Amino acid sequence: MPTFKCAVKALFDYKAQREDELTFTKSAIIQNVEKQDGGWWRGDYGGKKQLWFPSNYVEEMVNPAALEPEREHLDENSPLGDLLRGVVDVPACQIAIRPEGKNNRLFVFSISLASVAHWSLDVAADSQEELQDWVKKIREVAQTADARLTEGKMMERRKKIALELSELCLLFGSEIGTERACYRDMSSFPETKAEKYVNKAKGKKFLQYNRLQLSRIYPKGQRLDSSNYDPLPMWICGSQLVALNFQTPDKPMQMNQALFMAGGHCGYVLQPSTMRDEAFDPFDKSSLRGLEPCAICIEVLGARHLPKNGRGIVCPFVEIEVAGAEYDSTKQKTEFVVDNGLNPVWPAKPFQFQISNPEFAFLRFVVYEEDMFSDQNFLAQATFPVKGLKIGYRAVPLKNNYSEDLELASLLIKIDIFPAKQENGDLSPFSGTSLRERCSDASSQLFHGRPREGSFEARYQQPFEDFRISQEHLTDHFDSRERRAPRRTRINGDNRL
Prior knowledge:
It is a single chain. By secondary structure, this protein is α+β, with helices and mostly antiparallel strands. It contains 10 helices and 21 strands. It has 5 domains: 5-83, SH3 type barrels; 92-154, PH-domain like (Roll); 186-276, no CATH class; 292-449, Immunoglobulin-like (Sandwich), CATH 2.60.40; 455-497. It has helices spanning 64-67, 69-77, 128-159, 163-168, 191-194, 203-212, 232-236, 251-259, 433-447, 456-484, and strands spanning 5-10, 29-34, 40-45, 48-54, 58-60, 93-98, 107-113, 120-125, 186-190, 214-218, 241-242, 294-304, 316-324, 330-333, 351-355, 361-370, 376-385, 392-399, 405-419, 489-491, 494-496. Strands 4-3-2-1-5 form a 5-stranded antiparallel sheet, with no helix packed on it. The longest helix is centred in the N-terminal third of the chain and has 32 residues, at 128-159. Residues 172-276 form the PI-PLC Y-box domain. Residues 478-497 are annotated as: Disordered.
């Protein structure tokens, strides 16, 4: 008499001895089992309903879902839902067409596994063409499966990525220059890899790539001292995120501070319109269109309250640098002033710079001191974007390595900016006399000219004239003190004049 229905799992293979018995393999799941007396139970398996099988060949499944942990996963990911009863290893299958058909179906083929005896799966089709198509596709998959497995292993060794992990990844990257790039994507490059693209050969291609998506460049791992690389080539090639070591006070970080000065240090600066031109090449000056070059004439007149290294008196000089595109970058320097860091004054000397791409150029002042060994020691700096410069006499506030203001320290300069195009539209040569004459005229007007009283020039000249007179009086005062200094002698232990 039957007790209750359950599911059992086969412990061994069993082949039917009679027509009313089940044939099953090891680990087969028999459903709707009715336990009977006498050591024989009845159940459903392989499309056969309520046939007999020996009870000592099976074990009862307390929780069928627990014994099939992958069952829930298969049901969720399969469109068949709970109708899915398992998967078949296609490369290990053998396909055989049944000409006689089966169960009133004319077009039937069987799938069997050589590793499992007495097991087969019969599949019926509606027509001979459908049957042949099924058989053809299964055999093609079986033949190409080994090739795909071998290719996957080769990829795993080549890219050092586990094949199982690669199959789980949803995010993927595109090669540079492909059309699959999207503005939502961002690629990260170490500086060593980015340097292969920010050059004359590949700079334009990298700029076009950055028009399609974002790129991030970060310092290489070998920079154990947290030093920084030059960010200018990455910026001009369109990279949106150029990561630097902010803890290091060096020139790249000072250039970074100057770049974001135009946006009020909000962390965002719009790229120059020139870089968005399709014809623009970062390393080709002739590709600049719709941009007016300029020439800058700078005179360093004096400084005040320069910081000093150690306890000595500094001998300062100023290095003036234009940093930007490769064809614009240059630097010049003044003479050094001996033993004067309080209020050094330099002779009138114009420094001329011609800039073809002023939208991507920075003007940088660096004050050094020269020691007894002719070594240069950093004292102060100031860096500005060229597009933010104003003409005239300017007091330049100096900053330290960390771009922090130095109290009372500043440079006094005169700056003039001229258009650098001639009437025919070509760039004026750097050695042309017109620019030098205009700079020298401005210099002579400052030191030798006598402008009208109350005029605009007089108001600019008056502070410099007062500054010069005060310095002369101070020098005369120190000279007179040295001449009047008494000489002390020591006689019999007493100090006498």
